[in-house]
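Whether sequence alone determines local backbone shape is best considered at the level of individual chains. The sequence in question and its structure tokens are set out directly beneath this paragraph.

===
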Amino acid sequence: MSADARAPGARAPGVRDSDDASRAQRLGLGPVSAALERDLRQFVRRHGLSVWLDPAGHYTELVDHLAQLPSAPEPGHLDYEVRAFRGSYLALMHELANLTSGVHPPRLLVHLPGLNDRSIRTTPLYELYKAGKCYSKSLDTAVSEAAAQRVAPGDLAALCARADLSLAAADAWLSERVSGGVGGGLRATLENISASALIGDLLRGEGVATRLRDPGDAAALWAHLEAALGLRADWARSTGAGEAADADADPGAQVGAQADTVRAEDVAFAMASWAQAVEYVGDLRRPPVSPLLAGVSALPAAVRTACGELAEHLRQAHADFYRRTADETEDRLADEVAAARAEDLGRIDTFRFEEDKILEAAIAALRAREFDRASEYVQVRAGLRSPWVALDAGRRAAWQLVAAATALGQAIADAGAKLAANDHDAALAAYCERGAKVDSRHRELEQARFKLLGPQVPRFDAVRACLDDLRAAWRAWADAWAEDFTALCERDGFLPRAELQQRHLFDDVVRAHAQAGTTALFLVDALRYEMATALRAAVVNIDGTAATSVRLDARFAELPTVTEVGMNALAPVSERGRLTPKIANGTFQGFSAGEFQVKDPETRRRAMGARVGGSTCPLLSLSEVLARDARSLKHSVAQARLVVVHSLEIDQAGEHGTGLAAFEDALHALRNAWQLLRDAGIKRFVFTADHGFLLLDSGAGSGGAPAAQAHGRKIDPKRRHVISSVAADHSGETRAPLSALGYDGSELHAMFPRTCAPFDTGARARDFVHGGNSLQERVIPVLSVVHRSDAGGTTLRYRVEVTDRDKPLGDLGGVHRLRAGVRVAGQSALDFGAAGEIELALRAREPADVSAELVSVSGGARIEGGRLLAKVGEDFELHFRLSGNTEARALVELHHPGRSAELEPGGPARRFSVTPAVKQRQADAEPTSAAAASEAARAPAASWLAQLPAGVREVFAHIEAHGVCVENEAIALLGGARKLRRFSAEFEKHAALAPFGVRIDTVGGIKRYVKEGTRT
């Protein structure tokens, strides 16, 4: 939690509450005693009867003083009773008799000097000790807690090490320290300002920053930082803050002697750098090796906490400054970088090298198939909480890929290597409970690979090797389960019991729904069971109320698992459980149903409409539903018992090789169509499929096996099955007579690979295949949704409000930022049902050919499954990127992509830069050409260079001429490392004057300023 985001009433680090000071004065207590009494008071309030064990008797005088004070909830009084053992157990027990006899625990403090948790067991007070709560605190701990952030840690350590230390002496010492010193009015100001507010002043050049030219005030500032943050003199000097001072002087003396050398940004850098170092040591699981970090672990806990809060505040509020400071500090800790191991590092990536080490370790864990260990690394980094991941597209992609690979590995391990099923029912349950999750994770990994894997990903070769390993692991698992299921089918038959057969689904499920009310039947080509689990989750998330029931069941598709079989078998075409197929040249053409043949969407609609009755049975494609509004749809379905919605999107995308890019869009389209038909008045829905599919690597099979399996002539087989008149058995195949599959009128045989391998058809290998007997192809979903109330119950309208119009958020490392919130805009009638969350999407309003990528979000929103879910009434900060085939600046807006809410889109009036997709890929893959650099070098000096100060002008001229300027070159051109730090702080201001873009990146630990495309 940042220092500026504290709960109301909480103190900022180092800030003393004036009420505490006045209470201490009224009670007549010194500063250490007052802090101890405050802690005691809170302890007694929480626990009631409190027993204070004081083995050394350090606190006797304090307790005697407290015991003399009246007990009452008034100023200058105690709101709890104090009793003490002073030589007579009997006398104390007599005093306590009336105080402890009530029903409720009393607010009572009992002081027992000379006793510890062992010796008290032999005293008459042991029962009292067991009944109460024990309070114990050593004297040096009490002194440290009271003095932390008020005096220098070194002085505090020296005091606590004194052999004659007493509470009275500590009170006197601390009183003298906090009442003396230098700095006058500034010292009082610093006592009441948090570290985050102080560094904000320094970075903006306001407040405290305006008083640093006064030697006394500058000295007071350094003294305050030493006390509040433990900032050491040697660290401050090593950062360049006050470089002209004598090397043996402490920071305060140095500033007093050389006040004119003190710069606010240098002090801010020293603060930030030190806070990062302290946070790093606190998160480290071993002692630091760098001499620069010696003694950091011994800092008081309050000081270490303050440093951690300051570092977190900088990550959130001053991200660019944080990263620049961290990179420079990391350079000074080269011995830590060399010694670092992933297992030594904690959960906070203070420095860039930590994230590098963790990524390397996560990849190694994946290669070793230690998925649980990889998951430990992923949990923090893939969630975009690391500053090095959140704002770096390449690192973000690497962690997303590692996370997806880890999830697949864990799912495979959880599912088990064997199907372990004795019959069809058990096989279906095993796949739905264990196997489908594996296939879901596999599809998500392949989608992520398609979208994210590229040369810009750190450790590209290693990440790609990991993904290849997981592909092979999935294929081995899928082949093993396919072998097991094939063996089960050979033993028990390829058809399960009737209740699990696809051919009975219409009469068993759809007809029953249609008799109860108008039902929408979605026939979705190639909707796998695992995809339906995602669709079910979306329905529950949108309308998961008691008035809606959602049920997901599964059945086995008919064989072969092709559209011509499965889609037509979903119509009521069976007679006494048997099907009569129409087959020509080894290809299914449909099924006979009474007097006509069911072979396409229209004949399926006729058969279904005839079975359920009703004056009409509309047939709509998914695209037709999405193109119409609820009023138009309501008119079309008004007289129907059954509405058939036909969707080919998943299968067509897979067949055309675009499935990995289109599967999620297809699922979103199904969800939106459900919402539209729900608004049109339909309350019953059934989603099902003709078959599933296998998502294969077209390169090779498992264990180095060939990508395709031979079956005679290449023109004989389809991709995953063969229909033959010859009852021949082939190696690596299984065979079933069509009669055994429940088909009449045919003496043909169906043959399938025993594993997931496709047949070699002589055509180009594909990653999307179906037709076989694997569980991925045969298990189809039956998702039923029943609403018991009408849609449109809410009359609320919402709007998007951009909340950073007056003070727009700047970009962070090429990532755009905006702050917005969803508000209730109005209502047409009384409504108490405001939504808790509204789904949003980001799009470019102008130009339209720009795509938006969500990076991260904080505040009142979250990203889940690629969707942005915003809490109504709460602000959120969205980080995003824009890319497209243009260099123009784009207008963006947030809108609602579905139909579940009426929301007015909104966006900022300002435009955002667009990264040209082609140029960005070239920049990631190719260095600047020598010819281009030479041409730029010959360009005449432009007027914009004249607007830059000396030193900065030379750096930008170098960038213009050569395309890149590395850190060492910049230091030489600017005239020193200190000037580089100032250049970095003002970089965005200078870069805005250049006619080209400049990005900052780090390669091999070396910072580079890289020229990008010309601005328009």
Observations:
- The chain has six domains: 18-147, 191-339, 352-492, 498-786, 796-917, 927-1014.
